[in-house]
Amino acid sequence: SYVVTQPPSVSVAPGQTARITCEGNNIGDRSVHWYHQKPGQAPVVVVYDNSDRPSGIPERFSGSNSGNTATLTISRVEAGDEADYYCQVWDSITDHWGVFGTGTKVTVL
Amino acid sequence: QITLKESGPALVKPTQTLTLTCTFSGFSLTTFGVGVGWVRQPPGQALEWLTLIYWNDEERYRPSLKSRLTITKDASKNQVVLTMTSMDPVDTATYYCAHRHTNGMFDYWGPGTLVTVSS
């Protein structure tokens, strides 16, 4: 089955840029969705369809996807961005099953 | 406004069957393209997609758990039911139900329910 891998952790100073990668075989051919999750809360979509933002998500959150790597970029990081981040794709063109990435803990220094 | 909420036992014994109900509002599970899925998260671990049911009754299952999972829907009651057999302590997790948008993202989630498997 399809596997997507994320770095376990990313640390970033306030005001700097955090980049979280999601690696999978030809992931660029798939649509990638990104979620953040704060302790004790359900996940929330921050980017969908590789690079679109739901209403209410700051422009500081952006996404890209090409080749074997999708990337979530958080610009001008704030303390409130500290959370776990997950990418998500579907295993096949016909959406046989969902796949979440291994998750990345973003720590704001 | 779309809302979902999970309900079911907080504690099950090993070998027992878990039944969780997702009760939702703000959308219909008879609308083209709509789906409701289940995702779980063991304590301190990553999200794990389990199963999904579509508006047209098509079902999708995590391959490694397919033999243990069943998902059903009652559109008239706005409910989706997850059944998981042969529960084991490793199945201890927070179980979430979520609305699947037509583009494949899970855009609305329930608050989750913690299920502990212990004798």
Question: What does this protein look like?
Answer:
The complex is a heterodimer of chains A (109) and B (119). Chain A is an all-beta fold. Chain A has no helices and 9 strands. In chain A, strands 1, 3, 4, 7, 8 and 9 form a 6-stranded mixed beta sheet that branches. In chain A, strands 2-6-5 form a 3-stranded antiparallel beta sheet, with no helix packed on it. The mean pLDDT of chain A is 95. Chain B is mainly β. Chain B is built from no helices and 11 strands. In chain B, strands 2, 4, 5, 6, 9, 10 and 11 form a 7-stranded mixed beta sheet that branches. Chain B has a 4-stranded antiparallel beta sheet with strand order 1-3-8-7, with no helix packed on it. Chain B is globular, with a radius of gyration of 13 Å. The N and C termini of chain B lie far apart (40 Å). The mean pLDDT of chain B is 96. At the A-B interface, β3, β7 and β8 of A face β5 and β10 of B.
Biggest sheet statistics of chain B: 7 strands, mixed
Helix amount of chain A: under 10%
Number of strands of chain A: 9
Helix content of chain B: under 10%
Biggest interface reads: A-B, 25 and 23 residues
Note poorly predicted spans of chain A. none
So how many helices of chain A? 0
The N- to C-terminal Cα distance of chain A equals: 36 Å
Structural class from helices and strands of chain B?
Answer: mainly beta
Principal-axis shape of chain B: globular
> What kind of sheet is the major sheet of chain A?
6 strands, mixed
Mean of residue pLDDT values of chain B: 96
| Mean pLDDT over the residues of chain A | 95
Q: Quaternary state, please?
A: heterodimer
